[in-house]
Structures are given as C-alpha cells and as structure tokens.
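ligand=histidyl-adenosine monophosphate
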Amino acid sequence: MTNKLSTDPYKGVRDFYPEDMAVQRYMFDVWRMTAEHFGFEAYDASVLEPAELYRSKTSEEIINEQTYTFTDRGDREVTLRPEMTPTVARMVAGRRRELTFPVRWYSIPNLFRYERMQRGRLREHWQLNCDIFGVDDVSADIEILLLANEIFKNFGAENGTHYAIYVSSRKLLEVLYDTLDLDTQARTAATRLSDRKNKMGADEFKAKMQLICGGATADVLTFLNADNIDVVPEAVKESDAYTELQTLIATMKETGTPVAFDPTIIRGFDYYTGIVFEVVDLHPENNRAMMGGGRYDNLTGLFGGEPIPGIGFGFGDVTLRDFLISHELMTTDITSPQLAVLPTDTENNVAAQKLAQNFRNAGISTSVDLSPKKVGKKIANAGAQFIDYALVLGEDEIASGTYTVKDLLEGSELSGTLQELIDQLSNNG
Ligand code: HAM
C-alpha cells in the first residue's frame, strides 16, 4: 500500500484559498494603485537567478543560511530569488543605454528565504518593491518615503498611531568611523554587530563592540544610543551625510510625514550606501519592520560601467496582513459572481449553460450550479458564496422564455425576458 500524500503545503509556504486570495488581491491592488499614482511603472522577472548574483553584495546571513540554491541539469548554480534588488539592478544595468533616467519602477515578486519560521517570517513571501534609479540627490530619498507613507495612508493607517518610520544613514556611520580611524575590517564587523543590537542585552553588545573597536567603543555607543539627530557627536555633524539626513527629516516633517532618527537602523544588506529606513508596526503583537529600504549607489556597478544610483524599499505581504488585521484596518472585497443560474434538474444543465453565456456576453459575471443538489440547497450555497442574484431554471422557464431572478440579499424578485433582466441587472451594477 502506498502512503497517502499530505494535503499540507511545503513547510513555510502558504496555499491561497479564495478567502486568502481576496485579502492578497486587496493588498496588491492598493500597492499597485499607489505606486502607479506616483508614476511608477511595473516590471517583473523570473524567480530563478544565477547564484553568483547574490554573492558579493547581499547580506551574509541570507547567503550563508537562507538561500534556496541548487545545481541545474546543465551544472549551473541557480538561486530562487531571496530579494528583488539585485534583479532590478541587473535589469537596469542591462538596458542602461536605452532607458530614460530617472527610472521609477515597481514590482510585486514572490521571494524565497530558508528562515526560522515565526510570526511575520515565512519561507515564501511577496514584497512590493519600488525603486528609483538615476537620482543622486536626497530628493529621491524623500520621494520614496512619501510614497511609502502614502501606501499606509491608502490602507487607512495613521503615521504615529499605527506605524512609525525610522531613518538613519550608512554614510553617516562611515563618517563616524572616519572620525574614530577604524579600519575596513573593524567597520564591517561593527556594522554587522550593530545590525544585531536589539537581539542581545546591552552588556553583551558592549563587550562584543569592545573587542572590535577597542578605545573607540564609547563613541560608537554614544552614536548608536542617540535618540535625536541633534545629539550625535559634533565631529559627525560637520559632514554632508549629516546635512543630507537633517534635510530629509526636516522636509518630511514639513510635508506632514514625520520620520524619526534611529541610528540602530542598519539594514543587513551590504549594498546600502546612504539613507536607510524601516517602517515599524506599532501594535504590541507585531514588533517587526513591515518595510525596509535605502539608498544603494554602487550595486549596478557589479555589471560594469559607471554605477547608477538607486534607492527603494521592499514591503512584505505577511507583515502587512498581520498589521491590517491587528489594527482592524482589513477590508476585503471577496470577488463572487453577480448571478448564479440554478437548473432544477441536471437535464436542464445545458440550457442553463446557454442562458448563463447570454448573461456573461452582456457583461454580467455568472456561475452555473451543475450539481444534482436540490434547488433550495443550491440557493443557500449561492448566498453563502456572496452571489447577488439567483435564477432558478426549470421546464416552465425554458418553455416560456421568461425568468425570475431573486435578490439573495434583499429577498426581492425581478421577472422578465432575458433582455429585460440583462437591462435591469446591468442597471443594478
Ligand atoms: P528586507 O528588509 O529584507 O529588504 O525585506 C523587506 C520587508 O519584507 C521586511 O520588512 C518584511 O516585512 C518582509 N520580509 C522579509 N523577509 C521576510 C520573510 N521571510 N517572511 C515574511 N516577510 C518578510 C529587502 O528585501 C530589500 N531588498 C528591500 C529594498 C528594495 N531595498 C531597496 N530596494
């Protein structure tokens, strides 16, 4: 005897039953609508990428522990994309001569990471990616943050009540390291450790930083503990990076979109070079970033030629779903047909299908219940599927060409010929 197969999906990925699909569609619709409202164009790519795309500039954690990588039949190393940024950089670099810059692109890819699963973390998730290429100025960073905020607004969420935006700057961190004369190795180690600051106690963090930075530890800690851009060390304030971050924070405030300075926002990816940010869910059950991004001015350089500056973010569907449910902001529009044609007997199925086709041709979405169930049961099922109207089709209706349509919500009825009903249903939306 063979073992029965499990009906469970592969570990860490989801099936999307119609009710889940309705939620997903709602979220994607708001994402697409807002991105396009900001003048972003859609792009897409395959989930398969050559493994080498991620080797030099993605995060160490993702490369060493989280990629799904395999060797194909032609002996190539292939990775299921764990993020979209290297892909979009590859695509922009590949068409650098043809494209008109600045480029504003968005996509909603599914991404794969072999993660330890927990709330908000799965092995396949979808992520809205919005990126601008070709603007070497803080105005693009501001534009990206305005878009990020607008998306939340379009979900009915309020900045400061439901979510908060935190910003920092990799460039500013480099300025700090310059003032402390840290070598490249110490910089990389200190940055990676800082990225994990919230995952350990203060004493452990300090002890580890001491091993990396020695005498400079106190200054690094002062910087990382600053809760306001005004209190960073004076030497750091004399830099372009500081002026840039200050401009960003002030401009965002003027536009009514406050963002707060948080020097512990590092972002794990090695490609970030400037402003970095995260949008955090303020609900106590969801202490996670929903969105993260930043400026990466050298990534396209991997493909040769002058690097094209880039800035963008990724916004995850799993964390967004938790956010909308926790804050009671979820509204879904379950798509169901407008009309169900219900033959009284399976002998009438073909007549029902022909009739349904006429309604569909007139633009009315129509399903047919082809089962042998009793008609009362069919009406109840149509109601449970949120179908608006039911048309029961028996011998009398077929012979007379006159039909009765029942409004399943109101309980009222309409009668008439096919054309009369089409007219009325079309008017009722
Ligand atoms: P990321 O911070 O790795 O950034 O991901 C962005 C968001 O995707 C996270 O804040 C989180 O909501 C969601 N996310 C990430 N991993 C998972 C997971 N395993 N399960 C569920 N949700 C997840 C990036 O990926 C950058 N490439 C974003 C970017 C675009 N930077 C510039 N442009």
